[in-house]
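Hello everyone,

My group is preparing for a crystallization screen and wants a predicted model to guide construct design. The compound we'll soak is phenylalanine. Before spending weeks at the bench, it would help to have a computed complex in hand. I've included the protein sequence and the ligand's SMILES below. Output in structure-token form would be ideal because that's what our pipeline reads.
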Amino acid sequence: MSIQDNLTINEKKVLLALEEIGSAAPEKLEEKSGLQVDAAMQAAFMLEEKELVSVSEKVLERYSLTKEGEEYTKNGLPERQIIDFLKKPTSLEELRSHFSPQMVGIATGWLVKKGWAKIENGVMVPSGNVYAGKDEETLAAFTDKAKTLEELGSDQGTIKDLLKRKLIIKHEEKFRTVSITDAGNALAVQGLVLEEEIAQLTPDLLKSGAWKEKKFRPYRLDITPKPLYGAKIHPYRRLIEQMRQIFLEMGFAEIKGGIIQSSFWNFDALFQPQDHPARDMQDTFHLDSTCELPTEYFENVAAMHEHGGEIDSCGWGGIWDKELSRRNVLRTHTTSVTVKYLADHPISPVKAFCIDRAYRRETIDPTHTPEFEQLEGVVMDKDMSFADLLGLLAEFYHRMGFEEVRFRPGYFPYTEPSVEPEVYVDGLGWVELGGAGVFRREVSEPLGIKDPVLAWGLGVSRLAMLKLGLKDLRLLYQSDIDWLRKSEVCRT
Ligand SMILES: N[C@@H](Cc1ccccc1)C(=O)O
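Reply:
Good plan to model first. Here are the tokens for the complex, ready for your pipeline.
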């Protein structure tokens, strides 16, 4: 295909106009090409891509007076008005009563800076050395029209001061010049055929048969079009939705709870001893606020911690501190939500899950963020067993696409037995994905729960990392536009 074939009729018109005059401003191009200025410039940019013309841009800076600037141009700058008045040393107080305190305030700094006067013990003393400043000359050079620095006969420093004093404002105007290149010229002198071309076939053209007489703009198959990125759901959201869907399909109810929890629900109700390291400042975001303890449970919980309550347990010993339990924290796990839900719904059966954010004082690195999501769940029913728990979790991971699942013994103060589920990922091996277990009697008894409770808290972001093939967890939270654009739209 020749270069000529590849030009639209507008591009040809612009090229022919420029062949004559070499280069032109947009208005001139409009006049010479017979096109509207927008169409002419659009064609010019397309010609620029083909290197047949070049478009240069110059920014012209002009200045005009502000209201305040106009006033001072007429009456003199505050420092000029005051120095003209100042025949002898005069107290600032007197000056303030003669002029406004505000004006004396503005003028003083400049009088001193310009060396026109000194302040001594609250008295302004004229130096006798007063000159017409460049700023005053510049202000005097203004008329109604905005002017350039050259037109004002000014300099950068003075303009900067006047801008800072808000006496003038800057206007920027862009000027474009379109110039024909050698290649453009060479093409134009060969002569260009101005023939109307059709870029789109319309039903009318088809029906009337007029298409037979028309010339069609050929397609360019050698140019890669710019990629188009459609809108889509954030990949992390999509995975969270998938996990939610799996639990809903398995007959679970979704529950929600507060981000702020009392230490009571976050730790004590879960039989975490009050000196447990997880409760340290380094691990938990403690808040200044406190809350009231639930009267129906806290005494039972206290007794359980101190001596094992009414069951065959010896508790943690020591004195359980009520005040410590009242302190609010940002929930360190969503187990605080499920345990409270169970306390409110102690009658079997219960199948509930919560997929939400938890907070821990972590140093941010590729595998840790202080905010992260957990997938928490509980099943309470008669005769529920540890085997049911393992089966249920394996089923969840299978549905998420992990074929191999195994459970390693784990430890949590609130479950016995406890496990850590792991999935097998090619290239990574076994990856740990959270914790699970059967609630201890020390947890269920004080809350009035009689039946066994299976519980788990799974790492959602870790799972998302595996599913999305990420090495850095932070990508999930950063909204990196490049990554978002390239991430797949559908399930992986
Ligand atoms: N809360 C635990 C997970 C867990 C939940 C429920 C039972 C056992 C373990 C964690 O955040 O790691």
